[in-house]
Amino acid sequence: MTRVKTKLIAAGLAALALASVASAQAPAAVATTASPTATATAPAAGPALPTRGAPSAATPAKTPIPEFYAPTPGVGQPTADIGLQPQVTELGQYAAWFHDDVLMPIITVISLLVLGLLLWVAVRYNRRANATPSRTSHNTVIEIIWTVAPVLILLAIAVPSIKLLAAQYATPKPDLTVKVIGHQWYWSYQYPGNGDFEVVSNILKDDEDKAKGEPRQLGVDARMVVPAGAVVKVITTSDDVIHSFAVPAFWIKMDAVPGRLNETWFKVDRPGLYYGQCSELCGARHGYMPIAVEVVTKDQFAQWVKANGGTMPGTGPGAVKPVATQTAAATPTENATVAAQPAKTN
Ligand SMILES: [Cu+2]
Fold this sequence. Notes:
Blueprint: H1 2-34, H2 36-41, H3 55-58, H4 90-124, H5 140-169, E1 176-183, E2 186-191, E3 197-201, H6 206-212, E4 224-227, E5 232-238, E6 243-247, E7 252-256, E8 262-266, E9 272-278, E10 290-296, H7 298-307, H8 317-345
Parallel strand pairs: 1-5, 4-10
Antiparallel strand pairs: 1-2, 2-3, 5-8, 6-7, 6-9, 9-10
The protein binds copper (II) ion.
Residues 182, 243, 278, 280, 282, 286, 289 line the site of copper (II) ion.
């Protein structure tokens, strides 16, 4: 054990020494770059290094990508009020009711009851007020009450709670699937059913937010767009570390884990702009990868898909072509199998 300890201490000391060497060298490096010769050659040094998340800025869009809605104050973004954001999905409304009208009253009543009991005991049964205490050690009635009452309360909470949990994980037949990919530190959205185009979404600068009237640090250069009234299946995954895709007004939060596909869903009937944020600490710029989901009408959605170079299912050439090739390729094989089977069984 002592040998291991000594080794650990030695390793620690070595690391410290290395760190101090590195910090001592750092100012020297800065001084070199700041020297007049370096400054003079700097403009001819070559193209700037590409930054991660730059592709959206680098690829010029052919058609301007339309944006349909401005943010509504108090909806789909944080407010100064205590409590949940106004919910715009059915599940969110159920969850808000459960929180506000079931859990909060139960919690309040229990807290007040316990506080009352404590005060009662402290006042009525202290040494001065009750000099000769009772020797009671059992009381069947009270013991049954304090066992059964919590069980009933827990059951009353468990039923709506499990119902909500189950509904969150039971995606109805989706009208649209969006694959959400977390990156350090931006989001990208793929639309596999619409020609598989991808939207890369980066945070806006403060002055850009101001100019567009978007809440600070929540505006993005390319929004995730979905049609109103459609069941949207969201598949989350990640490019690097664990992120979490969360939009509070939709009551959704799903981890985006590298190498894994997670699933959640939402259906919003009211068109508008709703914001969220990455909700899993993912590194230095975790706080700067906002989510902006724009819920639009079906026509607006088709327009947006077209502007991104995608196709609507069943309309564009991209949608028809694979189906036709598939049928052509599949039919002879299927026929062959069907024809071969009776021969084999006989
Ligand atoms: Cu993140």
